[in-house]
Design goal:
By secondary structure, the chain is mostly helical. The protein is about 70% helix and about 0% strand. Helix 9 packs antiparallel against helix 10. The radius of gyration is 20 Å and the shape is globular.
């Protein structure tokens, strides 16, 4: 996008920002008695194309519609394809994994696929069934045949996940290292680093070998993945010690509390980063920040409504809710 295009797009986003949820809104949602009450609150604010949540729209439908609406907004503003590709990378690789497994067992499930304008359920299943992998982005097309053959010959879904999760991280890191868009680079780098920490922690807990852990990690500018793999193979305390030494003390504190606390720390750290874009008017930053803020809202809404469904107390919900952008 040109500078003038960014200025126009950012002006449009500034109007949209006024409708974002605030921390006070989230606290109000936490205090509601049921999932339905929260859903009504959101639909009254226009979520899920507006309307009455009682007219056949459940939580998943409303949240999926809200998610799709934000991607349509990005495209209507003319956001560069590179940015959209990074923002949808996880969904692309998730759908590829799911399609390969579905073809392997000759069964598919709508709920197992993420919505994706190019690579949703039907198109991804067609690509895998026809082995038409060249229709995927180059980075995915390179690894998809190998992943498909791995599943056919071994039936090992965990190994499939590891291969494609690594490919996803590598693709995000490649864009982070090459893009001229500084905010996109920072966002992508943070995504890769936090995911690598997750992998190392899980590897330590499940007592994976150093080679297995290192194979799953994506080299990046934030973490020395060889050192991280050695620490993870040694044990969880070694992971904590290394992370504290390289500036992730708050992440370690969250991990020691619970993995859900760590996930919250990841989201809150991302929110702190994107808030820096509020006063930027000449780059993609505010546009991407708005989109990420909406994603955080959607995750938080899902957490609250799922908790209401299962009868969790307000104290448990409060521990899991994320910071808001608004």
């Amino acid at each position: 996008m040109k500078k003038a295009d960014y200025i126009y797009a950012v002006a449009s986003i500034r109007v949209k920002e006024k409708s974002l949820l605030t921390d006070a809104d989230v606290q109000t949602m936490c205090g509601m008695k049921s999932e339905g009450e929260v859903l009504s609150f959101l639909t009254e604010r226009g979520w899920g194309n507006g309307g009455n949540s009682q007219n056949g729209k459940d939580m998943d439908t409303v949240l999926s519609e809200e998610d799709a609406a934000q991607m349509r907004l990005l495209k209507s503003l003319g956001v560069d394809d590179e940015i959209i590709e990074v923002l949808q990378m996880q969904e692309l690789y998730h759908n590829l994994k799911t399609a390969i497994k579905a073809v392997y067992v000759n069964r598919d499930d709508d709920e197992a696929f993420y919505p994706h304008d190019k690579y949703g359920k039907n198109e991804m299943l067609r690509i895998v069934r026809d082995k038409d992998f060249q229709k995927l982005p180059v980075h995915a097309a390179k690894v998809a045949p190998q992943a498909f053959d791995l599943m056919l010959t071994t039936g090992d879904g965990q190994r499939l996940d590891m291969v494609l999760d690594k490919a996803c991280l590598d693709a995000i890191e490649a864009i982070a290292a090459s893009t001229k868009d500084q905010f996109l680079a920072d966002y992508a780098e943070l995504r890769v680093a936090t995911t690598c920490i997750r992998i190392a922690v899980r590897g330590a807990i499940t007592k994976r070998s150093r080679a297995q852990i290192e194979d799953a990690l994506s080299p990046n500018r934030t973490l020395d993945v060889k050192r991280l793999a050695v620490a993870a193979a040694t044990g969880i305390d070694a992971v904590y010690e290394l992370l504290e030494k390289i500036g992730f003390k708050e992440a370690v504190e969250a991990l020691k509390n619970s993995f859900s606390s760590f996930e919250k720390w990841c989201d809150d750290t991302m929110m702190d980063m994107i808030r820096s874009q509020k006063f930027n008017i000449e780059s993609s930053g505010p546009i991407v920040a708005y989109y990420l803020a909406k994603q955080c809202e959607i995750r938080t809404a899902r957490i609250i409504m799922t908790a209401k469904q299962n009868g969790f107390g307000d104290d448990i919900i409060s521990e899991r809710i994320r910071k808001m952008y608004g």
